[in-house]
């Protein structure tokens, strides 16, 4: 198994500390999983690593790193909706799926300190798993990040650096420190091992339901869940498990929608935008680094992209909470997008929505 540059095709050992190829292209993994067979799921493992046969794992370091992430329930919500409860995780967000795999990789290659940028959830996950692995950690967060997310990150022993400006300014500052000091950039966007974790979301749904719902809503900022889900769906399709590819509806914020705007004209690159403040901080990414890859998937599978209305987020959050689902604002934005989509297009049958983060994390 090796890295392959998504731009020029250059190959590198996965033990490299380089965050990206010298040409600037991001790494992909040269890894093709075997055919998915539900009978081969390792049911001796209660968690997402029960799918280890189909994950790009270099060894069994994950056994010492895992905190039991995954195997989150699927809950009916109304007549047409299923909620995948991914805030039932060690750090209360779906990002634990990717962080567990990425930090297991870091420990495998002897990394002793990482830096990472985040709007909160990914930073908290990376900090927690670094604490578990005994790896030093500094997390960069943008100004305005929820104080509770910052407190959780610090509780795991990580240093927290708050960067003035936007989420993209935060990423720039983190990457500059990684470059300047030669530190490992444990990015949930750059590093493809992260997607080996997030793709287990779809394996779980398939195991739990013995099918994939007809319509899948996915929040879309940097694409960490989106890319993982698409990779998982492609694998299931190639394995003969899917009679047809589901309809995918990717959700952006109307205040930060570079992919949605690009998709209107079928552009190859994300649109140049100026992000506005939004409650959906987890998808407020003005310059998604894997934007070209995301757009290619959207066109390949004829996906839809919708921009969630800011005015609907609090009402959607309240509607979820009224039925026992206390989610953070970014998750509520996905449900708000579902409601708006239904209003415009009619209620889609058999829809799956991820509940990505717990509400207490985004409360000020």
TrEMBL record:
It comes from the Bacteria. InterPro entries: Ser/Thr_Dehydratase (IPR050147), Ser/Thr_deHydtase_PyrdxlP-BS (IPR000634), TrpB-like_PALP (IPR001926), TrpB-like_PALP_sf (IPR036052). GO terms for biological process: isoleucine biosynthetic process; L-serine catabolic process; L-threonine catabolic process. Gene3D superfamilies: 3.40.50.1100. Residues 65-356 form the Tryptophan synthase beta chain-like PALP domain. Keywords: Lyase, Pyridoxal phosphate. SUPFAM superfamilies: Tryptophan synthase beta subunit-like PLP-dependent enzymes. Its cofactor is pyridoxal 5'-phosphate. GO terms for molecular function: L-serine ammonia-lyase activity; pyridoxal phosphate binding; threonine deaminase activity. It holds the Pfam family PALP. This is Threonine synthase. It comes from Breznakiella homolactica.
């Amino acid at each position: 198994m090796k890295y392959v540059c998504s731009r020029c095709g250059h190959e590198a050992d996965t033990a490299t500390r380089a965050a990206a190829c010298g040409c600037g292209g991001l790494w992909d993994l040269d890894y093709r999983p075997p055919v998915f067979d539900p009978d081969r799921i390792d049911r001796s493992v209660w968690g997402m690593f029960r799918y280890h046969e189909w994950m790009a794992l270099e060894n069994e370091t994950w056994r010492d790193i895992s905190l039991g992430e995954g195997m989150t329930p699927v809950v009916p919500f109304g007549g047409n909706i299923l909620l995948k409860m991914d805030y039932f995780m060690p750090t209360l967000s779906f990002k634990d799926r990717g962080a567990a795999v990425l930090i297991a990789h870091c420990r495998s290659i002897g990394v002793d300190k990482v830096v990472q940028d985040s709007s909160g959830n990914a930073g908290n996950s990376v900090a927690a798993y670094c604490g578990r692995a005994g790896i030093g950690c500094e997390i960069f967060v943008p100004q305005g990040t929820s104080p509770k997310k910052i407190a959780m990150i610090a509780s795991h022993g990580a240093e927290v650096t708050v960067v003035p400006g936007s989420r993209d300014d935060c990423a720039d500052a983190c990457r500059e420190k990684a470059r300047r000091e030669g530190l490992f950039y444990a990015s949930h966007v750059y590093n493809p091992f992260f997607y080996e974790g997030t793709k287990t979301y779809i394996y779980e749904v398939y195991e739990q339901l013995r099918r994939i719902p007809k319509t899948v809503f996915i929040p879309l900022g940097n694409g960490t869940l989106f890319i993982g889900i698409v990779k998982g769906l492609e694998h299931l399709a190639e394995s003969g498990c899917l009679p047809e590819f589901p309809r995918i509806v990717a959700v952006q914020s109307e205040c930060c929608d570079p992919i949605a705007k690009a998709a209107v004209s079928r552009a190859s690159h994300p649109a140049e935008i100026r992000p506005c403040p939004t409650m959906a901080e987890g998808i407020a990414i003005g310059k998604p680094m894997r934007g070209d890859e995301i757009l290619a998937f959207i066109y390949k599978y004829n996906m839809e992209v919708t921009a969630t209305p800011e005015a609907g987020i609090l009402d959607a959050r309240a509607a979820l909470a009224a039925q026992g689902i206390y989610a953070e604002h970014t998750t509520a934005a996905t449900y708000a997008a579902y409601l708006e989509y239904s209003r415009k297009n009619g209620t889609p049958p058999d829809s799956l929505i991820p509940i990505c983060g717990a509400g207490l994390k985004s409360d000020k």
